[in-house]
Design goal:
By secondary structure, the chain is mostly helical. About 50% of the residues are buried.
């Protein structure tokens, strides 16, 4: 074909119009002598243009024609232009599969398999595929025969003769026939082994469910028995050799490539277990050791090859175990664990392209369906199907899944599976990744019937279906629960009350009957409020079930809804603010403290919908609000009531932020820096308590003296208060200092100061709905027997003459918190020489500190407490780390400014930076301190009261584990990790604290 320079030929233009992306190369191919007889035939060009990739189809056709005998070429070309069925099938396959094009180039006569179809060819089963593989006598001939069968199957698929479900079933039937052929080859190679044993091959996974991909591992389990008169051990050895040979026949790569991997890792004990077991051995394992996921896998078990009676016996024997799995002791925590997406091992750059495991992927649909089968299949045999689509249909027909939800999931699953099929068909490689290359995406889109703008249409459809799956895959657990307590239209199926209770129990609800009552109360009726609740609850129920105490979450939600149900903003906030509903669910179901704080003023739920709502407010902001409220109040008690209300609200803000940061949400992962979480809580609670003390001080002064107290007065924070390390249940350790104003006698100033202290403590402990703040002044000079408040000069005289080393150590935490700032600074300057003594501590002082620590360990540990699990006084706990750091501060603080801090972690980092402690030891101590601090916070959050040890109640212990980042069923790991981390810290303490004084 010659054209004038600079002008394109008419063929070039026609090729462009028919979808070729490289018309120049296609034009050259059509000019080859091999295609001389058909190059001008418009029918050929039309047919090529109808394929997924016209360029690929033409290249494949040329290769077949050139590879065939000369006498056969014209037969192929004549048939191609005169027989539309062959033309569509052959070119359709060549345009969709480079791998099958390679096969046809190696075996050019195999195109004839596509020429005619008998009626049986349109829907072949195992028998027809077995006939197609009958002549295979070795691995190579089996591969060739397998590809020939796959060629006809793919042709029906790409031409639309068969749908997705039929194609997947045919692929599974072809796999069955192939396994049988491979086993026959193995038996022929080792007749003596075949004579000694009975061997059954049970398909699992997608092969077992007759929903196989083009290229997928074929999961199997082998069951063997000895033949009469044969020793069982020898028979199992023979069966193992046969099974292993059969696997190699399918999996090995030869000159004809490979078929697919045969994977036996779903067997008992996985790769560590024997390849073949007897039926009794299988049953013994399943009855004693199997985990829930193994029964989930057995849903799809189907005998496919070998001894059919033995295979049937196996399936019949395990079936009752599968459908009784929901009655197992650990089913609920296993389900909670299995429901979480396992995407951690997917590289970040791949997760958005993952069809199978990514968000809104195939695994979401498959897992949701299988889990519902396990829960309800024990009482409904109609759900006993290995096919995802058949099971989904049965779930909808039984009312276990809403019909509309099931229809949307069915459509999305079929589309995603079709994408997966076409992606794998191209090169016959096992992959679930959507390609990134434009040409690959174009071919994929065209193969699915998208012709106008294939890439854009494909991406839009894919995202739409993935979004449907993401939205529905968990909702389908919960929407039918609402139908169970609702009035449905005539003819609508619903989940029975018994089935709803079973499902709630399987999802972790300890009292399903109460849960159903709550659902009915929340969602019944025809009001707008009930309609919004019916929209929210399916999602909320899933978040509640993701916690350690779903019942508490649902009950709390009902209480909040009852309290706020008539306020116009509440349900609108949860419906329209994406994070608010999930944040509320996390907060309500994680323990008692946060819900208790919220119930006292439910309007604080608005914090959860504000993007900045979980950020702790600064001390300056809090003091400004508190002091303004005191100024507006009529008397001290009403003033402090407002102050304590602010404290309760801010405590809720802090607990909510802590819980949400520890649990994570769907949009933001859990905070990985646990030290930062602890520091945020400590700083926020410290600032809040300081502002509260400042407010109580102002209220006490105003009540009796107006704006000016006869003496300057300051509150000094001590202990964890001064160290900005308060936990939720901590008291506020303080010292009170005053300085008489000019012209005021010491007696009058002292009386005023003591009166203020007494009034502050009374006001902060008045019985109200808000949590009290306990003021503890026991660290004052002379302890409980000493005066409650002293002047600065009195402190100076006492510390100069009577101070003991433990008091100097306690003063390491001293920091001004409220009242007269100048007086507070003067007190801190007064005690600096005591806590950071010049040239450090003498040997006697170091010895005394060690003696006091050892005495505390032996005397203050609660009777019966496990010293390896006590967060405060136990081995490697808070006390161990703090005393070690404080000893370093007292020894070296005079010379190292970085050590002059009231905060443990800051001081430890400064000691490491000054080479006073090795980095590895500092890291060990820091890790233990952070963990112990989080345990104390967790106990308070979960139980609603402070504690230094792990709870004994199983549900509370699980909730502590969830807060600390452990999945359900892993509290043993949590306790082991705690012991390990604190044991290492104690070893450092033994060396650094109890070792050499320098």
């Amino acid at each position: 074909m010659t054209t004038a320079p600079g002008r394109r030929s008419s063929t070039f233009t026609r090729l462009l119009r028919h979808g070729f992306t490289d018309p120049s190369a296609a034009e050259q191919l059509l000019d080859l002598d091999a295609l001389a007889s058909v190059r001008s035939d418009p029918v050929l060009l039309e047919a090529l243009g109808a394929t997924a990739d016209p360029d690929l189809a033409l290249r494949g056709l040329v290769r077949i024609v050139e590879a065939g005998e000369e006498s056969e070429r014209q037969v192929l070309l004549d048939t191609l232009v005169t027989a539309k069925p062959l033309r569509d099938r052959l070119l359709g396959v060549l345009g969709a599969s480079e791998a099958l094009g390679d096969h046809l180039a190696r075996h050019p006569r195999d195109w004839q398999a596509l020429v005619t179809y008998e009626s049986a060819d349109l829907h072949p089963g195992v028998a027809e595929f077995e006939q197609g593989l009958a002549d295979a006598v070795d691995p190579d001939s089996l591969r060739v025969a397998y590809r020939r069968c796959l060629l006809t199957l793919a042709a029906r698929d790409v031409c639309g003769t068969t749908g997705l479900a039929q194609t997947a079933a045919e692929l599974a039937d072809l796999a069955t026939a192939t396994l049988r052929a491979a086993l026959a080859i193995a038996r022929t190679a080792a007749p003596e082994d075949a004579a000694q044993c009975r061997l059954a091959v049970v398909a699992m996974g997608k092969c077992g469910g007759r929903e196989l991909n083009y290229i997928s591992d074929v999961d199997v389990i082998f069951v063997g028995e000895a033949r009469d008169g044969v020793d069982e051990t020898k028979a199992m050895q023979a069966a193992t050799r046969l099974a292993a040979h059969m696997m190699r026949i399918c999996s090995d790569t030869t000159v004809e490539g490979t078929i697919w991997e045969v994977d036996a890792n779903l067997r008992p004990e996985g790769r560590n277990g024997p390849l073949v077991r007897t039926l009794s051995s299988h049953l013994a394992y399943y009855q004693r050791w199997a985990k829930t996921w193994e029964f989930q896998a057995l849903l799809k078990a189907r005998a496919v090859a070998g001894d059919p009676e033995l295979g049937a016996e196996y399936v019949d024997a395990v079936s009752p175990l599968v459908w009784g799995a929901a009655d197992r002791e650990n089913f609920v925590p296993d389900v909670q664990k299995m429901r979480r997406r396992v995407v951690d091992n997917i590289p970040a750059d791949r997760i958005e392209r993952e069809l199978k495991l990514g968000p809104g992927g195939l695994r979401d649909v498959e897992f949701a369906v299988q889990l519902l089968q396990l829960v309800h299949g024990r009482s409904d045999a109609s759900l006993h199907s290995g096919s995802t689509l058949e099971a989904l249909r049965a779930l909808a027909e039984g009312g276990y899944v809403g019909r509309a939800d099931a229809a949307q999931l069915d459509e999305a699953y079929r589309f995603l599976r079709a994408m997966e099929h076409r992606i794998q068909l191209y090169r016959l490689r096992r992959t679930h990744l959507v390609p990134e290359d434009e040409a690959d995406l174009r071919r994929l889109g065209r193969s699915l019937g998208m012709r106008t703008d294939p890439v854009a249409e494909l991406n839009k459809a894919w995202k739409r279906h993935a979004s449907v799956v993401r939205r529905l895959h968990e909702k389908i657990f919960y929407r039918p629960l609402l139908d169970a307590v609702a009035q449905l239209a005539p003819g609508e199926s619903r989940l029975s009350a018994k089935a709803a209770a079973i499902r709630l129990e399987a999802l972790g609800y300890a009292d399903p009957a109460a849960a159903l009552r709550h659902l009915e109360a929340l969602s019944s009726g025809v009001t707008r409020k009930a309609a919004i609740q019916r929209t929210l609850l399916p999602v909320l129920l899933g978040w509640f079930a993701d916690s350690a105490d779903p019942d508490a979450g649902l009950l709390g939600f009902r209480k909040v809804s009852d309290a706020l149900g008539k306020t116009p903003w509440y349900l609108r906030l949860l419906r329209d603010e994406g994070a608010a509903a999930e944040n509320l669910a996390r907060v309500l179901s994680a323990g008692r403290l946060a819900p208790d704080l919220l119930m006292r003023a439910p309007e604080a739920v608005a914090i959860l919908g504000d993007p900045e709502g979980l950020t702790p407010r600064t001390r300056e902001h809090l003091e400004q609000e508190v002091l303004a409220a005191v100024g507006r109040a009529g008397d001290a008690e009403s003033a402090v009531a407002v102050v304590r209300g602010v404290r309760r609200r801010e405590l809720f803000r802090t607990t909510a932020a802590d819980l949400i940061g520890s649990y994570g949400t769907e949009d933001s992962p859990a905070e990985q820096d646990h030290g930062a979480l602890v520091d945020r809580v400590g700083s926020a609670v410290t600032d809040l308590n300081a502002a509260t003390v400042a407010g109580a001080l102002r209220a006490a002064v105003r009540e009796r003296w107006g704006d000016t107290l006869p003496t300057r007065f300051a509150v000094i924070g001590m202990g964890r208060f001064g160290g900005h390390e308060l936990s939720y249940g901590s008291d506020a350790d303080v010292l009170f200092v005053h300085q008489p104003r000019e012209g005021v006698s010491d007696e009058e100033a002292g009386r005023a100061a003591n009166a203020v202290v007494g009034e502050m403590r009374r006001l902060l402990q008045l019985p109200t709905a808000d949590p009290p703040l306990l003021i503890d002044a026991d660290l004052r000079p002379e302890g409980r027997t000493g005066p409650m408040v002293r002047t600065l000069k009195s402190y100076e005289a006492y510390y100069r003459r009577w101070s003991l080393v433990w008091e100097s150590q306690a003063l390491l935490r001293a920091e001004h918190m409220a009242g007269d700032a100048e007086l507070g600074r003067a007190f801190v300057e007064l005690v600096d020489p005591l806590r950071y003594p010049m040239e450090g501590l003498g040997e006697d002082a170091v010895r005394e500190i060690r003696r006091l620590k050892a005495r505390m360990e032996s005397e203050r540990m609660p009777r019966g407490a496990d010293p390896t699990l006590h967060a405060k006084l136990g081995r490697g706990g808070l006390s161990d780390v703090e005393w070690t750091v404080q000893l370093i501060q007292m020894q070296h603080g005079w010379a190292e400014p970085g050590l002059r801090t009231t905060r443990t972690r800051e001081a430890l980092a400064a000691a490491c930076a000054a080479d006073l402690i090795p980095a590895e030891d500092a890291q060990t101590l820091d890790e233990a301190w952070v963990l112990a601090a989080r345990v104390r916070n967790a106990v308070m959050l979960v139980r609603g009261r402070p504690g230094d040890t792990f709870p004994s109640d199983a549900r509370e212990l699980a909730a502590v584990g969830r807060y600390l980042g452990y999945e359900p069923g892993h509290v043993g790991d949590m306790l082991d990790d705690y012991r390990r981390i604190t044991r290492r810290a104690r070893a450092v303490v033994e060396e650094r604290f109890y070792g050499a004084a320098g």
